Amino acid sequence: MVFFGIVLLIAAVICFFFARSQSNKLADLNATDTYTTQMLHDLHKKVVETLGAEALAEPCEIEGQVSCDNPLVAPISGQTCIAYRFSLTREYSEVVHDTDSEGRKRTRTQTGSETIKSEEECAYFWINDNFGKVWVDPTDAEIEYEAGQNILLPSPDKASILHFGDFEFAAPASNKGARRTTGYRAQEELFTDDGRAYILGCVTDDEGEPTIAYHEKKLDRMLVSRKTERELANSAAGWSRNLYYGAAGSAVAGIIFTIWGLL
């Protein structure tokens, strides 16, 4: 009972911190003013001419059409994008010998995976509206990726090259030991270089151009999303409320089980 109570208390702490993060996200969304690209250009000119480029760091949010002069190419699909996240994992099965709660020895097979390669890349892009366009630097932004390719290939009997779309991997021969490789999985998530997007960040100066970027002293986060501001706010409010309820419920249950186990 004590162990179960401690697990519930730990879960309550985790839920609380996630709830607070969503609450802070909602506060950022509600507190930040909405701009057009023309308003950002006017603000940039006014601040740079009067106070200097280093003084410009104004929180802003904007919605518009995405475009990119030099898009990235996703490693599996070969699709152009402004950002992608890629991982290659080795999946395996292994024979495990252990003892159950009654002292009986048993042998079982369990599965697992380990990451061989992972990378995340992003590129500068434009956000366009009816008034013009401004640069966006998505470095260190929270990007809401869309699911891309997910390919699983079996482990080869002998060393060979595996092809995951445009990505190649030199796979060794399948091992026959206690931990046996069963396959390799390549996964890709994208944010394509088209369509509309919502941006939350800070307008700054980058080589004389107004640029929306992350600024840790002004905002807790930078967001790049396909969702609208209202959709993001509703989602953050819902998650925050439910996680706070979960934290409270887990904390109460954890205290009860812990006290019960100590009696």
What would you say about this model in short?
With 263 residues, this protein is an alpha+beta fold. The protein folds into 2 domains: 1-32 and 229-263; 33-218, no CATH class.
Summary keywords:
single chain; 263 residues; alpha+beta; 2 domains; five-stranded mixed β-barrel; five-stranded antiparallel beta sheet; 3 helices; 14 strands; 30% helix; 43% strand; flat
Give an account of the 3D structure:
The protein has 263 residues and is α+β, with helices and mostly antiparallel strands. The protein has 2 domains: 1-32 and 229-263; 33-218, no CATH class. The chain contains 3 helices and 14 strands. The chain has a 5-stranded mixed barrel with strand order 1-5-6-13-12. Strands 2, 3, 4, 8 and 11 form a 5-stranded antiparallel sheet that branches. It has a two-stranded antiparallel ribbon with strand order 9-10. Strand 12 (196-206) and strand 13 form a beta hairpin. Helix 1 runs antiparallel to helix 3. It starts with a helix and ends with a helix. 28% of the residues are buried. It is a multi-pass membrane protein.
Summarize the SSE layout with pairings.
Layout: H1 2-31, H2 37-50, E1 58-67, E2 72-73, E3 80-99, E4 105-122, E5 125-129, E6 132-136, E7 142-143, E8 146-154, E9 160-164, E10 167-171, E11 179-192, E12 196-206, E13 209-213, E14 223-225, H3 229-262
Parallel strand pairs: 6-13, 7-14
Antiparallel strand pairs: 1-5, 1-12, 2-3, 3-4, 3-11, 5-6, 8-11, 9-10, 12-13, 12-14
